């Protein structure tokens, strides 16, 4: 079946209607088992697409579809399963789709790239409606709450409706035990503390149950790294948010996917999200430091004097760092900035000036305050790191005249721009 793609035109990639080629390449191939109930001649137009990422949820599929169909009576809705399962979930979805009273589609990914977040991105791209609800397949997100999210959205004053466990009369009773509840609330507090501006007024940024207008998202720029796709969206996109309280239910069947490994993935995701660009900037700086030491060692082994060896090493790594930053850190903004030679001159000049200032400052800390040379070096390097990132984000890669942002910015705009640059993902 051919299905209208979001950006216009028609297409079918690897048997999955509506999946753009770029997204298919990023988030994994799919099989040809896309299913739709034969009683539905078309899935377009739709009021609402319900995207359900699944991993080994076969026992829950039939009840989920039945309850979604009942809850969405009077709403033109479809269910889009994006399945990464290794059990019989895909076959169960096909069986249920053949008898369902609402359109049910299956996209089974052979390669589950991006995990749950990647699955949601694929579902967004394949959806027949621009208005999408994301929910889990284990029935902990009650389908009966779908109309509440829908009614809140159609008021017309928000872009996202979040089903919150921590707002109003919402509950988190479905979490297994007091320790899980404590971990969930602690993680929520940590997340909100790291994004005080963007998550202001959002009580449950890590819920997996929400409604969103996908037209407001640039799917090609989102880089989900874990389970918390809503957090990724809210942190990277300025959206109007409303919340609807809901009761987080007990799992219907199957096993919970929560684990220590998932917790580690969450902390990694949170760190990369909060310090995405800066993290990559730091990684490149670290490689540069190692390369600097290696070059000095090699040149001195060849009989080169210490001072020339250090100069050659420093200049080589400054140039190499610039090239790597161009490719992996500031690739998304360099088109709006000045020309490459201008950017190189600014970067090269600042890094050399920084080194000229940093070395005497390190010596001053040692001689005046009697701080060890190792600690003094570490202090000045940390200061230098933030200075370098600030300079590159706001000067080297500042938009040129005539681009989308003006040259002059107020203090608040500078801080907001810096925050945006820090959070923007580095390209890996």
Structure description:
Helices cover 48% and strands 10% of the residues. By secondary structure, the protein is of the alpha/beta class. It folds into two domains: 12-274, Spore Coat Polysaccharide Biosynthesis Protein SpsA, Chain A, CATH 3.90.550.10; 276-423, no CATH class. The strands form two sheets. It has a seven-stranded mixed β-sheet with strand order 5-4-3-6-8-7-9, sandwiched between helices. A two-stranded antiparallel ribbon has the order 1-2. 37% of the residues are buried.
Q: How much strand content do the residues show?
A: 5-15%
Helical content stands at 40-55%
Class of the largest domain in CATH?
Alpha Beta
Average predicted confidence as pLDDT: 75
The total of beta strands comes to 9
CATH superfamily of the largest domain: Spore Coat Polysaccharide Biosynthesis Protein SpsA, Chain A
Blueprint (SSEs and pairs):
Layout lengths: L11 E2 L2 E2 L3 H7 L20 E7 L6 H11 L5 E7 L5 H11 L4 E5 L6 H12 L4 E4 L11 H8 L6 E5 L12 H18 L15 E4 L15 H8 L4 E5 L14 H15 L1 H26 L4 H23 L11 H29 L4 H24 L14 H13 L5
Parallel strand pairs: 3-4, 3-6, 4-5, 7-9
Antiparallel strand pairs: 1-2, 6-8, 7-8
């Amino acid at each position: 079946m051919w299905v209208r793609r979001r950006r216009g035109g028609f297409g079918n990639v690897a048997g999955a209607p509506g999946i753009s080629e770029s997204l298919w390449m990023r988030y994994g191939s799919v099989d040809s088992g896309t299913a739709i109930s034969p009683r539905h001649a078309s899935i377009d137009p739709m009021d609402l697409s319900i995207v359900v990422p699944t991993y080994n949820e076969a026992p829950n599929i039939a009840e989920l579809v039945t309850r979604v169909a009942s809850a969405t009576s009077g709403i033109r809705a479809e269910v889009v399963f994006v399945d990464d399962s290794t059990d019989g979930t895909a076959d169960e979805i096909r069986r249920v789709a053949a008898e369902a009273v609402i359109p049910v589609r299956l996209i089974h990914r052979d390669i589950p790239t991006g995990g749950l977040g990647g699955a949601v991105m694929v579902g967004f791209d394949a959806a027949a409606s621009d208005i999408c609800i994301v929910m889990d397949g284990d029935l902990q997100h009650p389908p009966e709450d779908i109309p509440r999210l829908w009614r809140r959205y159609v008021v017309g004053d928000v872009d996202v409706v979040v089903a919150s466990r921590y707002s109003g009369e919402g509950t988190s009773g479905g979490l297994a035990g007091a320790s899980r509840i404590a971990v969930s609330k602690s993680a929520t507090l940590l997340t909100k503390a790291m994004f005080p501006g963007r998550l202001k007024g959002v009580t449950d940024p890590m819920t997996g149950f929400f409604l969103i207008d996908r037209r407001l998202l640039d799917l090609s720029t989102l880089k989900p790294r874990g389970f918390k796709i809503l957090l990724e969206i809210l942190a990277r996109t300025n959206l109007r948010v409303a919340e609807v309280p809901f009761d987080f239910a007990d799992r219907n069947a199957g096993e919970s996917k929560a684990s220590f490994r998932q917790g580690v993935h969450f902390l990694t995701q949170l760190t990369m999200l909060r310090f995405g660009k800066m993290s990559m900037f730091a990684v490149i700086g670290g490689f540069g430091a190692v390369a600097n030491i290696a070059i000095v060692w090699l040149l001195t082994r060849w009989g080169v004097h210490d001072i020339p060896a250090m100069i050659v090493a420093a200049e080589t790594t400054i140039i190499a760092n610039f090239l790597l930053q161009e490719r992996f850190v500031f690739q998304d903004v360099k088109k709006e900035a000045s020309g490459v030679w201008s950017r190189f001159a600014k970067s090269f000049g600042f890094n050399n000036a920084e080194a000229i200032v940093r070395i005497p400052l390190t010596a001053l800390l040692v001689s005046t305050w009697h701080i060890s040379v190792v600690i003094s070096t570490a202090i000045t390097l940390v200061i230098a790191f933030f200075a370098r990132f600030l300079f590159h984000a706001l000067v080297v890669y500042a938009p040129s005249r005539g681009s989308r942002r003006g040259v002059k910015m107020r203090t608040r705009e500078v801080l907001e721009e810096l925050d945006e640059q820090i959070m923007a993902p580095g390209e890996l």
